[in-house]
């Protein structure tokens, strides 16, 4: 077994500890050990490990003599993982898999079809646009139902069998007319060892145990005002050990807020300039410390996770209203930007797709673009990096592949469908989950090669799709309603050997036959 300790370079304080079993190439993390158990578990941790590694930067160094390590700092550590491999259960705890278990290409399917590789599929109540999350063998997903999105649902399924574990219903404190034009359970929840925390665009936040009992709930709309965005909100929360952090960007009031996981009370709230935005924040390691990074309609801003204090801002961007800043390494992350529906921000958006780097200089943080790429634009899928290259995919299903370090074009090719869900790279594969149900699997790297094209359903047998039935007010909106009523693949989670894919009203589990 391998004991890994991560130390913040500037303070020499223990940041985290992980216990893993390694096969020589991959480490397998599993389970969760509460930090309160550290004192009594410390000797057990050392006794079980034959390799000891300390990280003070971007790499690990081997410590041959455990006696030289200062064991007195063990009680202050944050434990990431501890368990035997046979007890492992995959974890996909939030939007885009932030904090997920390590994935193994060999365990995941390359190909599937409506008749092969679908382990199970289940109908969901109402409709939702969030992604599934997974913890310890359970899949959690949210949705809303009712003509005015009156009921908020959190549903749990057994990952292996697809059996319904439980369903929770909560009345919305901000009912509004359901429409294909407005978000419907768009924010993805977060889950940890203690429970699931679901935020809805109504402003309602519901905390449940992993067995479905309510812990607390509150309405941010009641506390701080109802949102005015005519298309609704969609930003997904992020989490730390003890916080759920939610970004609410609205044209009348905007703020970043931290809620206690234990009680739901406000730990801090930072007001922001009002704006229209649908992007989600991310937690990025910058200068050895985690920051909440918000890329949102003309600015990118970093905040202290503990206090909500604004640490830096970058305003040389535009059109960044939909994608999440995914990080390929410490202090760096991708910005995705595109012109609006009427072409607004087109000029600035062309200058805003690239790799933003934030350096700590003394007590200040200095953000700047390492490179930008004028050709690449995203749709709803966020830019991601894998195997030394980064991928953007636009609304016309064109994939832009660029070098992560330099931004130099690698290839530009079209795949079968545009993507709402963000691509996922695993081993030698990159999965692009098309919004109409076709997943294109590319070989990772610098040559464009399609390994598989996988349909989740056929046109003759589409999934259940509980779209709103209310009559739209104009001919234009009625025409668009028909176009937007087709099933859409919104989100994906990956755990153990399974892909869990979500349309508006259906959940699919795909694995090797």
TrEMBL record:
* Organism domain of life: Bacteria
Q: Which InterPro entries match?
A: PQQ_b-propeller_rpt, PQQ_rpt_dom, Quinoprotein_ADH-like_sf, WD40/YVTN_repeat-like_dom_sf
One Pfam family, short name = PQQ_2
Where does the record place the Pyrrolo-quinoline quinone repeat domain? Answer: 117-226, 234-410
Recorded protein name is: Outer membrane biogenesis protein BamB
């Amino acid at each position: 077994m391998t004991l890994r300790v991560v130390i913040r370079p500037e303070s020499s304080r223990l940041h985290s500890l992980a216990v893993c079993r390694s096969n020589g190439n991959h480490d397998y993390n599993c389970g969760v050990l509460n930090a309160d158990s550290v004192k009594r578990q410390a000797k057990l941790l050392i006794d079980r490990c034959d390799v000891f590694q300390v990280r003070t930067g971007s790499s690990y160094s081997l410590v041959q003599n455990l006696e030289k390590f200062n064991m007195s700092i063990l009680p202050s550590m944050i434990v990431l993982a501890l368990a035997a491999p046979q007890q492992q259960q995959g974890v996909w705890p939030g939007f885009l898999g932030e904090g997920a278990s390590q994935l193994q290409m060999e365990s995941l399917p390359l190909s599937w079809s409506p008749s092969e590789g679908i382990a199970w599929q289940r109908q969901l109540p109402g409709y939702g646009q969030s992604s599934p999350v997974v913890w310890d063998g359970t899949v959690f997903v949210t949705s809303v139902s009712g003509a005015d999105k009156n009921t908020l649902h959190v549903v749990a399924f057994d990952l292996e069998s697809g059996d319904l574990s439980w369903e929770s219903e909560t009345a919305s404190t901000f009912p509004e007319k359901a429409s294909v034009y407005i978000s419907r359970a768009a924010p993805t929840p977060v889950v940890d060892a203690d429970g699931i925390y679901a935020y809805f665009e109504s402003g309602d936040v519901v905390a449940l145990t992993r067995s479905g009992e309510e812990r607390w709930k509150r309405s941010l709309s009641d506390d701080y005002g109802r949102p005015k965005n005519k298309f609704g909100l969609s930003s997904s929360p992020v989490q730390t050990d003890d916080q759920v952090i939610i970004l609410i960007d609205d044209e009348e009031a905007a703020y970043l807020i931290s809620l206690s996981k234990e009680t739901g009370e406000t730990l801090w709230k930072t007001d922001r300039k009002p704006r229209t935005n649908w992007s989600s924040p991310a937690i990025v390691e910058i200068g050895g410390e985690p920051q909440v990074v918000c890329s949102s309609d003309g600015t990118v801003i970093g905040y202290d996770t503990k206090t909500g204090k604004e640490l830096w801002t970058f305003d040389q961007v535009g059109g960044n209203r939909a994608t999440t800043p995914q990080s390929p390494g410490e202090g760096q992350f991708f910005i995705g930007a595109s012109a609006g529906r009427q072409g607004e921000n087109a000029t600035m958006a062309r200058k805003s797709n690239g790799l933003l780097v934030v350096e700590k200089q003394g007590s200040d943080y200095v953000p700047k673009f390492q490179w930008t790429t004028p050709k690449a634009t995203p749709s709803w899928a966020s830019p991601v990096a894998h195997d030394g290259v980064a991928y953007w995919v636009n609304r016309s299903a064109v994939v832009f592949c660029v070098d992560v370090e330099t931004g130099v074009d690698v290839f530009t090719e079209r795949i079968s469908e545009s993507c709402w869900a963000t691509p996922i790279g695993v081993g030698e594969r990159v999965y692009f989950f098309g919004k109409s149900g076709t997943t294109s699997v590319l070989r990772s790297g610098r040559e464009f090669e399609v390994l598989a094209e996988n349909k989740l359903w056929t046109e003759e047998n589409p999934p259940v799709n509980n779209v709103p039935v209310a009559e739209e007010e104009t001919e234009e909106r009625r025409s668009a309603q028909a176009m937007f009523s087709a099933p859409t693949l919104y989100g994906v989670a990956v755990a153990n050997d399974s892909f869990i894919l979500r349309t508006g009203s259906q959940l699919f589990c795909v694995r090797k036959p």
